[in-house]
Amino acid sequence: MTEREQASPGIDPTIPSVARMYDYYLGGKDNFTSDRAAGDRIIELVPNVKDVARSNRAFLGRTVRHLAAAGIRQFIDIGTGLPTQENVHQVVLREAPDSQIIYVDNDPIVLAHARALLADNPQTTVIPGDLREPDVILDHPDVRERIDFDQPVAVLMVSILHFVADDKEAADIATSFGRRLASGSHVVISHVTSGDLSEEQVRQGRAVYGTTTAGGVFPRTLTQIRELFDGLEVLEPGLVPVYDWRPDPSDVVIAPGAGAVTVGAVGRVS
Predict the structure, then answer these.
(1) Are strands 74-78 and 154-158 parallel, antiparallel or unpaired?
(2) Exposure winner among 22, 88, 214, 244, fewest CB in 10 A?
(3) What are phi and psi of 167, to 5 degrees?
(4) pLDDT in tens, 61-79
(5) Contact criterion met (CB below 8 Å) for 153 and 208
(6) Which among 11, 9, 1 has a CA at the least distance from the CA of 35?
(7) What single DSSP character describes residue 198?
(8) What is the pLDDT of residue 257?
(9) Neighbouring C-beta atoms of residue 181, cutoff 10 Å
């Protein structure tokens, strides 16, 4: 059976998907030849990309574990990606079994996998949605049914805003979610920077991502990424490389200057 025959309806396996490329970086199996080819080209340009993906995944786990321990019981994960080890609901429900988790994505294959994984889990739900439409996501009937917006909510935008080309639009998306949340809510963001990559490496990497379903990737400076947290109280240690955000001893640590760097922070709504 060919990959086209294996693909779900509406999915063109010849077009690389950023979700499936990320799955490939993490060592997953839910990817097609086009994803692996694009991923291999990125690995040539950014040799530390697999470590970047693993560190970002660990950051997600640490932040939601911290928030669950701090009393947050409602989580909305936007741009969730393909299921892998230590998914948000697995981490959260270990810490706080009474929590509600919403997964949001616009990739049909991600939605299909997530729904299959979570079919028997009554405290999680999966909805289609685009992060460029915060109000549509927050007003979705399934979200309104499960999430009490008078209580604190954690909104997770981990490695997703760098697929938004326009700087102002990216900042507006982040602040739009923050505006809708009750005091004591949190916004978790990680975002890629070019690190010590050359301008040519960045240009070629953007060209590869330009062939994907996302249409491109747009590294930003630390100053631009800090603007995503405008109006929020940024928790210690602030905006840092994700491997430096309250690290656990077992976490992957990437030596400075190894290539691209993903930075992240957790902002609190006052």
Answers:
(1) parallel
(2) 244
(3) -60, -45
(4) 999 999 999 999 999 999 9
(5) no
(6) 11
(7) -
(8) 63
(9) 22
